[in-house]
Design a protein that fits this description.
By secondary structure, the protein is of the alpha/beta class. It has a single domain (about 95-405), classed as Purple Acid Phosphatase, chain A, domain 2 (4-Layer Sandwich). The chain contains ten helices and 15 strands. The strands form two sheets. Strands 1, 2, 3, 4, 11, 12, 13, 14 and 15 form a nine-stranded mixed sheet that branches.
């Protein structure tokens, strides 16, 4: 993907600095005085006391100094990850309205506010928790999900590159539903990972983000419907470590695991999350954990120099039970830099977001929205959401965790 505006601005500033530096390197001699005489440098050259036979300017053309070699810049990788995508009826009703009706569905307008952040990433990851129905339906919500397939194209249009599929709802529509989800997501140009059906490798799945090879893994704590086979993997420490090692052996330079875990509607991490994250991140083969399932924001934490986002909340959802917190989420952004010691996470950041039920139903980039003129009640709602997300996100992390406040 193209470089973020901040990177383009930085490149421009650096270019300007070079021009200024070159202009300032003309020497400190007084005007009209040459710092080094050409005659002194080359005695055979004409001098002011010995004019040239042609009468031309005896001074040879100035030779610019050789430029110092530029050290190659370090390779880097920026990953953006979003929270749960659950296709409840209000989301596809809005998608139908945005597409002009007739059952064509366009979910991209609902996600428009986050598109600049998502599209600027080298690798943008989504989590599609619900299976997809055939075009035309039938579409069903909780407790056995099956949503419009057009969500896949809308995720691609928003800038997502790959989508994890292992969740407690993966088997809601059986093997056929899972296969249909995998093929639909792949056909939209988004890489599905975590489901070994329809020709997909399951764990690990490898993708190229520019010139960086990334290994992607996806697991769930359990399944609401009995799995037909082992195509979607349950959380098991040994299995995850084996898969991460396989990803590394296959050439992955950075390995990311999506884990569907935690307690629904709880901002606090549970025992499984607390115990599992340090064990997994202690492995040299695993670089980042991204969590889903709680439907509310949970903390982010740095463990041994590596990061875990325990729960990103909801990205796109509209629960029948409307709780303020289950309309909130964050986008997590991680920057990895190649060093002599391998790829290291050099920056972690987050963007507070919210699903405003409207109408129209829209995702809100909260820091940006709060710069606008808003009705008092809406401003209070947005400020409450930002305050809650900030407090939860930072419970286990200090100032090293940054907040994205602008467009990128």
């Amino acid at each position: 993907m193209s470089a973020p505006p901040t990177r383009r601005l930085l490149a421009g500033l650096l270019t300007g600095s070079v021009v200024i530096a070159v202009a300032a390197c003309g020497g400190t001699a007084e005007p009209g005085v040459r710092a080094t005489s050409p005659a002194a440098a080359n005695p055979s050259s004409p001098s002011p006391d010995r004019p040239s036979e042609t009468g031309a300017d005896p001074s040879p053309p100035a030779v610019p100094p050789a430029s110092a070699p530029t050290a190659p810049s370090a390779r880097s990788l920026t990953i953006v990850a979003g929270g749960d995508v659950l296709l409840h009826e209000p989301t596809w009703a809005q998608a139908d309205a945005d597409a002009g009706g007739g059952g064509t569905y366009d979910f991209a307008p609902q996600m428009l506010a986050i598109e600049p952040v998502v599209a600027a990433a080298d690798l943008a990851l989504c989590h599609l928790e619900t299976p997809l129905a055939p075009d035309g339906g039938p579409y069903t919500g909780y407790p056995s999900f099956s949503g419009p397939p057009q969500i896949a194209e809308s995720l691609a249009a928003t800038g997502f590159d790959a989508c994890s599929l292992a969740s407690n709802h993966s088997w809601d529509k059986g093997l056929s539903g899972l296969e249909r989800t995998v093929t639909t997501v792949a056909a939209a140009g988004v890489t599905p990972y975590g489901a070994a059906v329809a020709g997909q490798p399951g764990n690990p799945t490898l993708v190229d983000a520019g010139d960086v090879r990334v290994g992607l893994l996806s697991y769930t704590y359990g399944s609401n419907a009995a799995p037909a086979n082992g195509a979607v993997e349950m959380i098991d420490v040994d299995d995850i470590l084996v898969d991460a090692a396989a990803a590394r052996a296959a050439g992955a330079e950075v390995v990311v695991a999506s884990v569907h875990w935690g307690t629904e509607y709880s901002h606090d991490i549970n025992a499984q999350q607390r115990d599992l994250a340090p064990v997994l991140l202690a492995s040299p083969d695993l670089d980042l954990l991204v969590g889903h399932h709680a439907h509310v924001v949970q903390p982010m934490a740095e463990i041994g120099g590596e990061w875990v986002a325990y729960g990103l909340g909801n990205m796109l959802a509209a629960h029948a039970t409307e709780l303020p917190a289950n309309q909130e989420g964050v986008l997590a952004q991680f920057t990895f830099t190649e060093t002599a010691d391998g790829w290291l996470a050099t920056e972690a950041a987050y963007l507070p977001i919210l699903v405003d039920r409207g109408p129209p139903l829209r995702m809100i980039h909260l820091p940006l929205a709060l710069t606008d003129a808003l009705p008092d009640d809406l401003r209070e709602r947005y400020e409450t959401a930002v305050t809650r997300s900030r407090e939860v996100i930072h419970r286990l992390a200090g100032e090293e965790l940054l907040e994205i406040t602008g467009l990128t």
